[in-house]
Amino acid sequence: MKQVPLVPLAPLAFALILTAVACSPGETPDESAPSAEAPTGVVDSVFPMDVMVARFRAEIPEPGRLSGGAHSRDALVEGVVRALEEADTLAFERMAVTLPEWAWLYYPTSAQARPPYELPPGMAWLQVQQGNRTGVLRALERFGGQALDYRGYACGAEPTLEGENRVWVGCLVTLGRDGEEPTPVRLFSAILERDGRFAVLSYANDF
Fold first, then answer.
1. What is the distance between the terminal CA atoms of the chain, rounded to a whole angstrom?
2. What are 57-109's pLDDT values in tens digits?
3. Of 200, 184, 206, which Cα lies nearest the Cα of 66?
4. Phi, psi values for residue 165, rounded to 5°
5. What are the distances in angstroms from CA 194 to CA 32, 85, 158, 187?
6. What does the DSSP assignment read for 3-50?
7. Nearest Cα residue to 60 out of 115, 112, 121, 128
8. Is a pLDDT exceeding 50 seen at residue 142?
9. For residue 25, what pLDDT is reported?
């Protein structure tokens, strides 16, 4: 069995946007935390949601559409399985929703931005990144660098509709390894579909 080193996933770290906010004036951020400058550092929920979103997106370029991912849901799931077999962290990044896509195309119409949640975008993005990093590392720990017996997948019967987005959840991928009988596993939490493109919205999983 090929051993996969557990190293920080720089591509999936993207930007931990609360670094500046988490420290009081004069404090020095924890040197062990990923160092990435926040787009805005705005997480104060006393502001109206439209103001928080505008400030969060102030220095983030607006994308026209999903740029990565795949042209179909089938191709995206197959790409995730292939990335596991090849232990290719860059491939995981290419299949994920980017910060600009998340800020401009996904978050404003998501459930997180509406009552009763109204989670500040900075905090919501941080949670996505933490889930992505942990999920990919754990999936690589279990399946990385191995020949996998992929038998297909199944998601919820209908997507959740949020504005122009279709969000697929409840996806289980049937996989086996080392001669094991393939079983359904949750490799990721959600897929974003928009304008005929598909990308992983969250790599959080059950591992």
1. 19
2. 999 999 999 999 999 999 999 999 999 999 999 999 999 999 999 999 999 99
3. 200
4. -100, 150
5. 36, 27, 15, 21
6. -------HHHH---TTHHHHSPTT----TTS-----SS----TTS-HH
7. 121
8. yes
9. 34
